Amino acid sequence: MDNCAGAVENRAGLNLKRRRKEEIMSNRLFQGVIHQMRDSIDRTIGVIDESSVIIACSELGKIGEVTESVTAEDIASQAAFVSGNYTYKSFGSRPRPEYAVFVSGNDPEAAKYVGLLAVSLNSIKQYYDEKYDRGNFIKNVILDNILPGDIYLKSRELRFNSDVSRVCMLIKVTNQTDVSAYDVVQNLFPDKNKDFVININETDIALVKEIRSNIDPRDIDKLAGSIVDTLSSESPALTREQSSRLFFAVAEDYADIPSKAKRYKEVRENPYFNAMQVKFAYAVTCHKAQGGQWRCVFVDRMLFGEETISRDLLRWLYTALTRATEKLYFVNFDERFFEDK
User: Fold this and answer.
1) What pLDDT, in 10s, does the model give residues 224-242?
2) How far apart, in whole angstroms, are the C-alpha atoms of residue 212 and residue 192?
3) Could you report the per-residue pLDDT of 22-33, keeping only the tens digit for each?
4) Are 183 and 190 in contact (CB under 8 A)?
C-alpha cells in the first residue's frame, strides 16, 4: 500500500504542478487584458475560474475572492447570466467552459460589455493555446488542422522531442456516466511533457503516449487493457480475474529472475502495478455542488469540521443531501443528526 500511495501521490503531484503552471499563465494573460481595458470600460470587470474564484480583476483587491453566488452549473452555461449586481458570460476551450468574465451592473450595457469581453478573452486564450500549448499542437496534428510542412517547424518552436517513439490510442466512450472519462485518463497520464490526452469530441479521446523504442507490442495491449478496465469497471477495485491478469502480465517483466518468490515480490513492490489498481473518486464542496445532481452521493460529516449544529450548517447539509437522485450515504454522522421513530 505504501508503494501504491507513493505512486498515486507522485502522479497527483505532477498533475497539480502542471495545472498550477497553466493556471498561473492564464491568470497573467487575463489580468493583462483586464488591465488594458479598465480605462475604456468605466466599470468593475474581471474573470472567475470554474471554482468561482476571481483570478483577474480591474480592482486588484478582489483577486482571490470566492464569488459564492455563482455555481459551477452557471459557469457551464453558454448564455449570459446575472448574479447579484454583476453580469457574467462563460468562455473557454474545453468540453465545457472553464472561465467566466463579469462586468458590474445588470443593465443592457453590462450585457453588451460582457459579450464583447468573452469573445476577446476566448480568442486570446485560443491564440495562446495554439502558440504555446503542446497538447493543442498534438490535437491539430491528429485532426489534420496543420499543414504537413509546418509540423516540423512548430515542433521545434515548442521544443517537442520528435525523435522518441510514441503510440496513439483512440478511446471511444460508449456509455456516459457521472465520471468524466477524459479526467480519468488525464489523471492516469499526468506528465504533459511525455503523454498527451486529447478530447476529440463528446465520445472520442486520444492518448498519445511516449514508449520505449523496443517495446513489445504485447505490452501496449496490456496498457490498453488496463485503461479499459479502469474506465469500465463499476467496482471500487479491479475484479479478481482482472487483478490476476494484471499481476501475471507485469510478472513477465521480471522473467529473468529465476526464483518465483523473488519474482512475485518484485511485482508486488512495483509502484505502477499497485497504482493501476486504484479507482479514482471525486469530491466537491457543497458550494461547488450547487446546481448539480448525481445518482449516488456520499456526504462526509467530518468535512464540515467540529462546529456545532447551526442554521448555516443545516443549510449546507440540505444542499449536500439534495444532490442525490437515487442513493444517499451518510459518513461519520453521529446520533445528533438522526431522529428515533
Assistant:
1) 887 887 777 666 566 677 7
2) 17
3) 556 667 888 888
4) no
